[in-house]
Structure to design on (457 residues):
């Protein structure tokens, strides 16, 4: 094998925190760029009024569904790759990339055809508002094509993170952030001689940006000739046994991500039936919240990679110690960001061109969200970090989705649509599912049953 592993730095006094920062910050900032781009989209589209915000929010839910499908495949692959990297197995890494790309593109074709051929059906399932449906159809028809590029980009991004090359996806996202913002500016509002396309302009900008992002990240990989730069025969060097083992670990992750997406869609359907103003307010708060969640995602992905590397090296006791350290760090991170969000919550609504009532709703929801940040951070680290990093993907799926379906969705339905209570009470009650997840996750982590070496056999 021509690839040479970089030498380990044996002189580092505290390798845990050094590697954590090396991995977490690029991942966090990459997610922050993606969330910031969504924030800019919302701000620009927000100038067109509440129906446009609601339509793009709902149309974006289908794109979100596709993204989580890809993320599930890529995350499942990353579980293997992190352990193969710890075991210095380049053949296993490249074979896993091949299986992930095939899976992503097969699903991507189906999702793209659905969005392009039947956008009206999708939008009418999500909302009864005909004005929102009409705008959403335009958005879906264009963004649906981008599904074919997104699967490749996400797969390679998570692969690079797992082989300690987290800065490369950050570079690609930074370039695309600038391109997408510029395209939004000229296409939504009609600058530099272009016609003002409104929501259609935002969709075209997304399509072009996703294609450019795929080209950039694949080009960087093969130019640098790192461990992900596989030849075609290396990508397809998998057997039925490899596929079976891959699916055994990856399917629960895909089910986890798709289940979470379905739950998010169900929540949005409930919010939409509580009123278009409520839906617009929730879309704004989610866009803001996602920027903060970028740091949770960065830290939890670093957790999965670091734990996976240690298990691949058969340092199982160290992996357990890492899980305990991340339990503490995740709560501390949640408290810190929760305080910061609460401090700026009253200033955020003024950035959006919406009614005073929507602004008030946004502010109060942000305060409620800030209070639950520590628990949400902890649960993300258990599901995405500890359990997935240890190959315990089935339990991670059960912990994340079953509780949401059994507690969160029924609470939202009865509180919002049967009892007709306020959105504020609904949000507070939904925080209770985070308490349940945190207790179960802690018990699982302490049991050590989550540790599985996937490189063996």
């Amino acid at each position: 094998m021509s690839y040479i592993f970089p030498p380990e730095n044996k002189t580092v006094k505290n390798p845990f925190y050094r590697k954590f920062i090396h991995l977490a910050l690029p991942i966090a900032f990459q997610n922050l760029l993606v969330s910031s781009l969504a924030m800019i989209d919302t701000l620009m589209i927000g100038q067109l009024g509440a129906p446009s915000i609601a339509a793009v929010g709902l149309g974006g839910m289908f794109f979100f569904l596709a993204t989580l499908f890809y993320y599930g495949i890529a995350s499942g692959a990353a579980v293997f790759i992190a352990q193969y990297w710890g075991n210095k197995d380049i053949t296993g890494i490249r074979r896993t990339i091949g299986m992930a790309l095939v899976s992503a593109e097969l699903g991507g074709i189906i999702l793209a055809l659905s969005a392009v051929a039947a956008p009206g059906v999708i939008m009418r399932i999500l909302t009864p508002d005909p004005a929102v449906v009409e705008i959403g159809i335009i958005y879906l028809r264009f963004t649906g094509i981008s599904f074919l590029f997104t699967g490749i980009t996400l797969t390679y991004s998570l692969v690079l993170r797992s082989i300690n090359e987290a800065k490369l996806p950050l570079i690609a996202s930074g370039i695309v952030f600038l391109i997408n913002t510029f395209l939004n500016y000229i296409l939504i509002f009609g600058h530099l001689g272009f016609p003002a396309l409104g929501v259609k302009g935002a969709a075209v900008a997304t399509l072009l940006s996703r294609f450019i992002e795929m080209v950039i990240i694949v080009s960087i990989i093969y130019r640098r000739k790192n461990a992900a730069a596989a030849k075609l025969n290396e990508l397809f060097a998998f057997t039925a046994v490899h596929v079976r083992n891959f699916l055994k670990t990856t399917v629960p992750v895909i089910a986890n991500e798709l289940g979470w997406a379905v739950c998010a869609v169900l929540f949005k359907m409930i919010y939409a039936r509580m009123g278009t103003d409520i839906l617009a307010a929730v879309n704004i708060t989610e866009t803001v919240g996602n920027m903060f969640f970028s740091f949770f995602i960065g830290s939890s992905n670093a957790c999965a990679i670091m734990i996976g590397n240690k298990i691949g090296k058969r340092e199982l006791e160290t992996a357990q110690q890492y899980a305990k350290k991340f339990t503490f760090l995740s709560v501390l991170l949640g408290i810190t960001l929760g305080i910061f969000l609460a401090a700026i919550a009253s200033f955020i609504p003024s950035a959006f061109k919406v009614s005073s009532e929507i602004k008030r709703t946004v502010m109060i929801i942000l305060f409620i969200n800030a209070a639950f940040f520590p628990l949400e951070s902890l649960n993300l680290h258990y599901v995405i970090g500890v359990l997935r990093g240890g190959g315990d993907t089935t339990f991670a799926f059960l912990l994340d989705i079953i509780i949401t379906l059994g507690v969160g969705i029924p609470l939202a339905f009865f509180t919002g649509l049967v009892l007709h209570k306020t959105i504020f009470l609904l949000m507070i009650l939904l925080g209770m599912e985070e308490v349940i997840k945190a207790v179960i996750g802690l018990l699982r982590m302490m049991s050590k049953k989550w540790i599985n070496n996937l490189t063996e056999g």
Remarks:
- The chain is about 80% helix and 0% strand.
- Residues 15-447 form one domain.
- The chain has one domain: 15-447.
- The two ends are 21 Å apart (CA to CA).
